[in-house]
Design brief:
- The protein is mainly beta.
- 12% of the residues lie in helices and 34% in strands.
- It is built from two helices and eleven strands.
- It has a five-stranded antiparallel β-sheet with strand order 1-2-9-4-7, covered by helices on one side. The protein has a three-stranded antiparallel β-sheet with strand order 3-10-11, with helices on one face.
- Bound molecules: zinc ion.
Amino acid sequence: MARANLGGNRMRELRAVNLDQITEGIRRATRPVSILWQADDTLAFVARGREHRSEFHSDPVDEVMYMIRGDMDLHYRTPEGEEKIAVIREGEIIYCPAGVPHSPRFAPDAFVLVLERKRRGDERDKFSWFCEKCGGVVYESVKHVTDYNADPVSRVYEEFYGTEQNRTCSGCGHVTPRPPGR
Ligand SMILES: [Zn+2]
């Protein structure tokens, strides 16, 4: 008997994920991120906070953040270039529209659940650093994020802190210092 086409891997068994188990796993791991799933129209991951987070991330897709444990200061920039902070407390959820440059700052013992969707072929993510002296753009890295397992945030931090040239403001010459331990 011919088998019906059940839509390939869409017909896998459906299984729930326990967020407490995920955060415990990340706490013991060196990787700061655990990917829950990556599908065309939805992807989800849990991340712990990173110390000295300084870049602003501008995604081509909407993002929803839910604080599982601890609080977050979500720095973001208005279209006029003003920096603002939205505080997300434990148990609170926030919507960050596509294209808003944002910098999620929270402690390594705090955990966020992030919901987005997979990038299309022509969509790019932008990671920007701004000068603490003059406010101009110091460095920008544009990436096609194909797989969150590759930890794209860690890769752009290696780029930025890897050379003094990338950390030097072309406007005023100020060099963004390396944080301790980088
Ligand atoms: Zn500057």
